[in-house]
Amino acid sequence: MWFHCKFVLLTLIGRPIKWTAQRRAADGMPWEEAARAHGVATLVAWGSLAAIAWSDAALFVWVLPVAIPLFLSIPLSVYSGSVSLGRASQRRRLFQIPEEESPPAVLDELQTVMMDKQSTFKVSVAQFDLRLDDAVMRAAQNDHPIVQSVAQNAETTLTCVPE
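Above: the chain's sequence. Below: its structure in token form.
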């Protein structure tokens, strides 16, 4: 909510909005970076909540659902980016999407074809290309975005593997 308001205000005053790519490194988010990203919002939340508590105790209770997430934004960013917590969640099968629990058959078939290509070249290139084309075509016909993404990545990756 804070970032949305910030972007709307920047747009209204004519300032450019800088939207950078997400961090995909496996090292998590440092506390300093989280504080830089969320520090102002946290301070504004504390200040606003203090002013509201001083002026209207009834309103204070109603503002808490908005203020509490802002208070927790820094530690939440750090802990949600933690590699160790991510691996622990994965071991406990938390936060999984249905495709992680039981992948569509076309993904299993595509994975088999990819493993064949990467591990051994026993199948002739012509036979493999036919199998690959068939699996990719079936995956591309599936409307599910994850299946389409995997199919596109597989086609790009496997056509670049040296023969």
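The chain has nine helices and no strands.
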